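Example record

One chain of 116 residues, shown exactly as stored in the release files.
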Amino acid sequence: MAVYAYLVAGYLILAGSYGIVRSRHLVHAIVCLSVAQAGTYVLLIAVGYQRGGATAPVFGSTTKPNKHVVDPVVQAMTLTDIVVSATVTALLLALAIQINKRHGTVDPDDLAALRG
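Predicted structure tokens for this chain:
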């Protein structure tokens, strides 16, 4: 079962990267970047998956862990990744709006002609 999560993560990252390379519209490239970032969420969760790990890693000073526990750092990294990707997506969409206002196009080939 864990292999499928790695395959899905790889597929999302590759599909998003392919979409960015083949994009002819800035908004399409931003959406493809979001798809690739979703692959990183799946990858982080797949790395942190522990079969049979259902308890939190909170132990007293006298008790020893007798079950598998899940590392909460991976979950915190995934949540941080979600927040950062939402911020990056919002920033890129705002830049695409400003590019469209100033230049009247969001086609990267038309914007390449603006170089000095």
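Notes: The first helix runs from residue 2 to 22.
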